[in-house]
Amino acid sequence: MRRAREGVDEPVFYQGEHCCNVRRYSDTLLIFMLKARKPDVYRERASIQHTGANGGPLEHAVQFYLPTNGRGDQPA
Prior knowledge:
By secondary structure, the chain is α+β, with helices and mostly antiparallel strands. It contains three helices and two strands.
């Protein structure tokens, strides 16, 4: 939690010498903390619904093709 809200100091080196510190925050961790704490506000709202005509069920047809022996009739 501290890394997301307050950040942590990371050392910065220039030509092999420590010159200063930079405060780094974890944006990803903060996003997940918000989603866990308030899912009604921060949740993903993607919704996919597959329906047919007029909201009914989807209709599909399956066709099977049998191989032929080259003359157009089915093999024995």
